[in-house]
Specification:
Blueprint lengths: L1 E2 L8 E4 L2 E11 L7 E8 L5 E7 L3 E4 L2 E12 L2 E6 L5 E4 L15 E7 L4 E6 L3 E9 L12 E6 L4 E5 L7 E5 L5 E4 L3
């Protein structure tokens, strides 16, 4: 058992019969009354973020988790198949626990968070940004806009994003996996 003094960002705890990771926390010592810890907890099953306050010294139940790097192989009706490069062990992941499945391309790497007690996959996180090729977009016409304009573009994974007018078919662009937005064109 641990206490609120052991809380840090990224710590995984068992709370209300669910697994949560601490997104952010703040120790508060008011002038009057006991100290407490304000936290934002993210449910690993649903992804929902909740606010919670623990009193100082409150016992928490940390869960040992391991981050492992896996390579995405393919998708079928069973789920998304990944392989560990070191052990060549294969595992499949359900789409619900992947943070941005629409940007997952064969050969890309992702980090999978496993519960060390029962080897259950909890979360699959893509890198903060991925580089993908534009397979289809309408040609952009200069001079039709007064401000920054965008157009839809289809990527090699089938995902659709909004891109600036100067992006053409065949261009490789960087996409943020957290927001799903265009970041920049990759120079070849």
């Amino acid at each position: 058992m641990a206490t609120t003094a052991d809380i840090k960002n990224g710590l995984c705890i068992r709370y209300n019969s669910g697994l949560y990771t601490i997104v952010e926390f703040q120790h508060v010592k008011p002038g009057k009354g006991p100290a407490f810890v304000r936290t934002k907890l993210k449910n690993l099953e649903s992804g929902k973020v909740i606010d919670n306050t623990f009193s100082a010294g409150h016992k928490i139940d940390p869960v040992r988790v391991e981050r492992r790097k896996y390579q995405f192989l393919y998708k079928d009706e069973a789920g998304y198949h990944f392989m560990n490069d070191e052990t060549y062990e294969q595992t499949f992941i359900k789409e619900e626990i992947i943070n941005a499945p629409q940007f997952l391309k064969e050969g890309n790497y992702a980090e999978i968070l496993f519960n060390a007690e029962d080897e259950q996959a909890l979360v699959c996180e893509l890198p903060p940004s991925v580089e993908l090729q534009v397979t289809f977009t309408e040609p952009g016409e200069k001079g039709n806009t007064a401000t920054n304009a965008s157009k839809p573009a289809t990527l090699e994974t089938g995902a659709e994003v909004r891109v600036p007018l100067f992006i053409n078919e065949g261009d490789v662009i960087k996409i943020s996996t957290t927001s799903g937005d265009y970041s920049e064109r990759v120079k070849s």
